Every structure is written in structure tokens, then in C-alpha cells.
Amino acid sequence: MNLTGRECVSAALRFERPERVPIWTPGFDDGFVKRWREWKGVDDEAHPLTYYRNDTAILIGDERFFPSQAGFLRREGEYDISNNGWGCIARSKRGGYFSEEISRLLNDPRDLDRIEFEPASLPSRYTGVADEAAKARREGKCAFAKIGGLYIRSHFLRGEDKLLMDMAGDAAFCDALFDKVTRHFEQMALETLRRTQAYDTGLFVYDDMAGLKGPLFSPRMFARYFLPRYQRIIASCRAAGCRHFFFHSDGNIAPLLDLLIEAGFEGVNPLEPRCNPDLVALRKKYGRKLALIGGVCNTRILPRNDPREIEAHLRPLIELAKEGGVVLGMASVPAEMPPAAYERAARLLEER
């Protein structure tokens, strides 16, 4: 019997032995896609997403606090000035990738009470989301609803450096800010689940809060600010019928894993090998308490494109995934990834 991606991923997340190794769908950098097309000799319409097996899909609405305000404002010399919809005015060099924030709506904590987010129920936030959900299901993919996280979305509004200082020195302001952001994303989660009908597969929360060596703040601060608020979101979504909850953060989140489990999360992603304990070690420590999603090295091993090194890296992960509780994949496919290395890894993951 050939299971669909949805069936295979769902079985793995239930800690059942999957028929084949389930694969997490990464994001492909445009630079990689261009190199891959040249390497494969295919036309400009071809894309790795349709060439290699990918078992998952992420369904997300427009989460921005002020989506109606987002857009281009003006040009200043070589820069474009835009409102990003998160309460920030930013400038970017035309043709560039990164932007620089030049003003924020929440520059002064005293302004918080005057800020009102646009309703999470706005239909315009979900244009095309139901169609994406239907397409993913037709393709047999395991489609998850997604919201952004409380830390990362709060610092979009406040600024990361200021927010970290606030967390250390102004608990009253942080409680008010995080409560406001929690209410918004609780409603975003409920609306996204309703419109995608992803109740059985579950909800992903994307909240990057760690660097290579560890979280950007202590586990004590996570417990103080985020644990009860994530418990609230998960409780609301569970009451609405959502069955599973997963957490994404780049970087080394190992010191937070016990707290994430306490919050109600059942799996974590992307578990980058350069900064996290490997999947085999995590399985020994957490057993069936935590599903492991990711684990493939996209920054060191695959970019070196050594066939023996790639196989030595993937072989124990594949064997672990055959036991259930693991969905293999990488955080993203960067421009510098050799197409041959990605294809070699993809072919190894197809083995049964």
C-alpha cells in the first residue's frame, strides 16, 4: 500500500512506523532554484517542490497587526520606504533583500494602550487560504495551520533589542504587550484552523527565539512570560477541536524543550544539527514525549557535497525515522547548496 504524505506524516507523529520516511517540506532560496534549473537543464517554470517528494504544507493567513497599512510609501534616493504592516516603517535598497527599520509605532511603552490591532477575523487576511488547503489535500500532503509566535511578533512591533531590555526591566509593560499579542494570535489560530479545517493535523507556531548557542533569554523568562500564554492558546485551540501542536524555532532551543512540552507542544522543528543535540540523542532523552521534525544539516554537511559524508549523516537519521516519531527535513535550502547534494540527500530519503 502506498500511503499519501498526509498518512505517512500523521503516522510518524503518532509514533507509528511509517511506510516510508516522511519528509518535511523546506523553503527553497531563489538562488538555489535558479542554480538547480541550470543544473537540471529545465525551463523557468520548473521548481524543486514539484520534482522531489515533499509531504507537508503550511497554511497561514495574513497575521500582520495592521495589514491595511502595509505597502510602499515613497522613494528616497536609492532606498524604498515602506510600511511593513507590523507597526514599523522600514527602508530597503532597491534590489536588496534586507531592510532597516527607521521608525516604530511602539517606540514608547506608554503608547501601547493607544494601539489597536486590526481584527483577526478580517476576510482579507485569509484570501486564498482555503484554496491552498484544498490543493494540499488533493496532493496528499499533511497540511498544518500556522501562526507566528509571541516573542518574534512582539519584537516586530517593539524592536528586538528594546524588547529584551523590557523583559529584564519592565515586567508590567511586557505583560500588557504579550497579553495583547496573545489575544491577537489566539484569534488568528482559531480563524486559520476554521478556514483550513486543519484540526486533525494540527497547528504550528513559528517563534524564533534562539541563536547558535542557546535561547536569547533564560528558561526562567520563558516560564514567566510565554509558558502561560502558550498554554492559553493551546487550550483554546484544543477546545475548538485542534488535536496537535508543534513549535518552530531556529537555533539551539534545547534548554527550552521541557517548558515547550509543559506548554502543550508535541513536536519541534527544525532541529539544526549545527546548534542542537542530534535527533538520536533527543529521542533517547524524550522518547515519545516529543516528535522530531527536521534534523538534516543544510549549512555544513550538504553544502560540502561529499557523498560519503552525506550518507554518514543521513543513515542514522533514516533508521531512526523508520521507528516513528520523526519527520526528516531541513530548515531551508540556501542558495549555496549544490543541487547535486540536495538531490543526493533526496534520493537517500526515498529508500525504504
How are the secondary structure elements laid out?
Layout (H helix, E strand, L loop, with lengths): L4 H9 L13 E2 L1 H11 L7 H4 L4 E4 L11 E6 L2 E5 L4 E6 L6 E5 L24 H10 L3 E7 L1 H9 L1 H10 L1 H26 L6 E4 L12 H21 L5 E4 L8 H7 L3 E3 L9 H8 L4 E5 L5 H4 L2 H15 L4 E4 L2 E2 L5 H11 L3
Parallel strand pairs: 1-13, 2-7, 7-8, 8-9, 9-10, 10-11, 11-12
Antiparallel strand pairs: 3-4, 4-5, 5-6
What does this structure look like?
The protein has 352 residues and is an alpha/beta fold. It has a seven-stranded parallel beta sheet. Strands 3-4-5-6 form a four-stranded antiparallel beta sheet, covered by helices on one side. The mean pLDDT is 95. It is globular. 41% of the residues lie in helices and 16% in strands. It has a single domain, classed as TIM Barrel (Alpha-Beta Barrel), CATH 3.20.20. The longest helix is centred in the middle third of the chain and has 26 residues. Helix 5 packs across helix 7, helix 7 packs parallel to helix 8 and helix 12 packs parallel to helix 13. Helix 8 links the parallel strand 8 and strand 9. The protein contains 13 helices and 13 strands.
